[in-house]
Amino acid sequence: MNRYVKGARGERELIGMFMNSGYSVMRSAGSGVNSVSPDIISYKNGKGFAFECKTWDRTSLSIDVDKFALLLEWERNTAMETFIAWRVKREGWFFLKLSELEQNEMSYTVTMRKAREINRRFDSIVMV
């Protein structure tokens, strides 16, 4: 399946999950194509979250240094907690704080093992 199609489908799935929990949700224009903002923003009762979404079935996930810097700047400027939302086939969504990724020369990375250890799931971040 085309990476863009798979990613867009994952983003729509996450949007639906937040909407079903009573959040107002917006998908960023240009999401997935050199965007300067996170893919999804959700907001409810004065609390907002931002998400950079990835739907990769690999043993690790990487965000390039420039994109990571933009996400950090977004988090600082908006005071919205910003997550990497990683959808794994047959396991669902894992939500990782930016500080939980490890810096390498060319990217910030998290392993599937670490994501499973952290095990932050949708229910643990939403306000019902």
Helix content: 25-40%
Give the CATH topology. Trna Endonuclease, Chain: A, domain 1
What amount of the residues lies in strands?
A: 25-35%
Q: Care to count the β-strands?
A: 8
Question: Which strand order does the major sheet show?
Answer: 1-2-3-5-6
First and last CA, distance: 34 Å
Q: What is the helix/strand order? A: HEEEEHEEEEHH
Q: How many structurally independent domains? A: 1
Largest sheet: 5 strands, mixed
Give me the number of helical elements: 4
What overall form do the CA principal axes indicate? Answer: globular
Mean pLDDT across the residues is: 90
Low-confidence stretches: none
Provide the CATH architecture.
3-Layer(aba) Sandwich
CATH class: Alpha Beta
Alpha-carbon Rg, integer:
14 Å
- SS-derived structural category: alpha+beta
Q: In brief, what are we looking at here?
A:
With 128 residues, the protein is of the alpha+beta class. Helix content is 34%, strand content 34%.
Descriptive overview:
It contains four helices and eight strands. The protein is of the alpha+beta class and 128 residues long. It starts with a helix and ends with a helix. The model has no long low-confidence stretch (mean pLDDT 90). The chain is globular, with a radius of gyration of 14 Å. The strands form two sheets. Strands 1-2-3-5-6 form a five-stranded mixed beta sheet. Strand 7 and strand 8 form a beta hairpin. The chain has one domain: Trna Endonuclease, Chain: A, domain 1 (3-Layer(aba) Sandwich), CATH 3.40.1350.
